[in-house]
Design brief:
By secondary structure, the protein is α+β, with helices and mostly antiparallel strands. It is 29% helix and 25% strand.
Length: 212
């Protein structure tokens, strides 16, 4: 196995794939249309990708369906709720504004991709618009939409993502506490870490980001 035998030419790469259909090429739009707004309004989860120009970070963002707000056809916004306070994504935005979002709805195999640029805002009107869980966030992210399009459901269909009968049992996968314990070299304290995680979830789930 040669881990360093890599393709570095676009033309060579294209030879490994069939040509995209005209529909696949035409589906990309530069704004949020009515169907995309409905998707955003029903989505309780999206994946957020940012970069500082050197490394890429990706993280899930969730809330009540519609927690991401459509401001107009070229702008969407969402508020910051409690996380781990590493603020990786936000520090990235200060270096490079390009972002990508993947919206998901439970049970729906198709997803929606939104690309654009983003900025961090403390504007009161925007923060009030992005209220979720009865909490006004301390800051909001405003996204200037460049591209928007539906992504086909092949990956989610192959993975049986929404089919509960395919989900692994607890003894077939690590818990969050086991992962954290391994990463911080505290494998003998899994139960205590699990308790701490749950206490944190209960205490701050709907708190604005950065709050104790």
């Amino acid at each position: 196995m040669d881990l360093h035998s890599c393709i570095d030419d676009s033309d060579e790469l294209r030879t490994l794939f069939r040509s995209p259909s005209q529909r696949a090429l035409d589906k990309e739009i530069d704004h949020i249309d009515d169907a995309a707004a409905r998707m955003i309004g029903a989505s309780p989860l999206f994946i957020f990708a940012t970069s500082d120009g050197e490394r890429v970070d990706i993280s899930p963002r969730g809330g009540t369906p519609g927690f991401v707000k459509v401001v107009d056809e070229r702008h969407i916004a969402f508020g910051d709720l409690a996380g781990n306070n590493r603020i990786d994504s936000y520090r990235n935005l200060l270096q490079q504004s390009s972002i990508a979002m993947l919206f998901m709805i439970p049970g729906l195999e198709e997803t929606m991709r939104v690309n654009g640029t983003a900025s961090i805002s403390t504007d009161t009107e925007i923060r009030n618009l992005c209220t979720d869980g009865g909490r006004v966030p301390n800051l909001a992210i405003i996204v200037n939409v460049d591209t928007c399009f539906m992504h086909c459901g092949k990956a989610l269909r192959r993975s049986d993502m929404w089919k509960t009968s395919s989900w692994p049992s607890e003894d077939e996968r690590p818990s969050g506490a086991e992962l954290l314990a391994a990463h911080i070299d505290e494998a003998d304290h899994v139960d205590a870490i699990a308790t701490s995680l749950e206490e944190g979830y209960q205490a701050t789930l709907w708190q604005p980001g950065g709050s104790s």
